[in-house]
Amino acid sequence: MRCDKCKRDAIIFQKYSGLHLCNQHFIQDLEGKAKRAIRTHQWMKRGDHIAVAISGHESSAALLFFFKKLTEKRRDITILAITIDEGIVGYSNPTKAIQIASSLGITCITADFNKAYGTTMDEIVRMKGNADACSYCKILRQSLLHGTAQKHGITRIALGVNLDDEAQLVLTSILNGYPETIAYSNRVVNCVVPFIHPFMYIPEHEVVLYAWLNIKHNFESSLFPYITNTKEKYVKKVLNESNFRHPSTSYSLVNFGENLARICKDMKDQIHTCKKCGEPCGETCLYCQILEEVSGNVT
Q1: How far is residue 75's CA from residue 89's CA, in Å, rounded to a whole number?
Q2: What is the mean pLDDT of the chain?
Q3: Does the pLDDT of residue 111 top 90, yes or no?
Q4: Which CATH code fits 41-298?
Q5: Are strands 19-21 and 12-14 parallel, antiparallel or unpaired?
Q6: CA angle (98, 192, 99) in 5-degree steps
Q7: Whole-angstrom distance, CA of residue 179 vs CA of residue 292
Q8: Phi, psi at residue 79, to the nearest 5°?
Q9: Is the pLDDT of residue 105 over 80?
């Protein structure tokens, strides 16, 4: 097939847009969407020191490459990488992340669960079981990223969250009955260093392709070994099936989440927030619960 922009050989067909794109126009399209997300949410400004959370997988490596390209001619913005060792044998190894960052000429700093919390994810799973392993890992990882960023004067933490991730979060929140997590997902409360998601409008398979086209490196291939949450698996299956039949499903869900956030912008007094961290939640704040449990009991 030929590119609809220039008639060169196409490397991808976007079902949701109906476009065939060549290498050059695919990269322009993806980077344009990421720049739009940054402009829309005001995620970058003069003087920023941005850290990209990198795991060694394609999505985070692609994001690091994107920021290097975006800021390489700017002296007012600096970029570095942060990688976290969760302490999962056969899964979390910072070596690959450091190598990818080094190949792009970017400094990579490391942090690990054992030093920060006195325990590892493997130890937590042995003591608690793996039913809530995803929640433990996500919350502890984000907390450590935030703490590490503060120590190094970081102003924003960029995560390789893509369109599929965002859509899954919206649908899962609806099924769990927690609209507040959608409405206030981008609200910064007591968060000194905000998290940003420049790839939020880009499907996962396009982010992966972007990484392979631009970074000549072997990526991390291991998968998180403790995925047991049947609801998350169900949501992912539903989204995949719906996107196959209706290619704009994920975009619609993300747009719904953003529209809900805009509608609820001035309704902060009508939503329950955690007394400790100020984040929106239901009756209790899982984030604070897990941090207290790990610091007080797991060790």
Answers
A1: 40
A2: 86
A3: yes
A4: 3.40.50.620
A5: antiparallel
A6: 5
A7: 25
A8: -125, 140
A9: yes
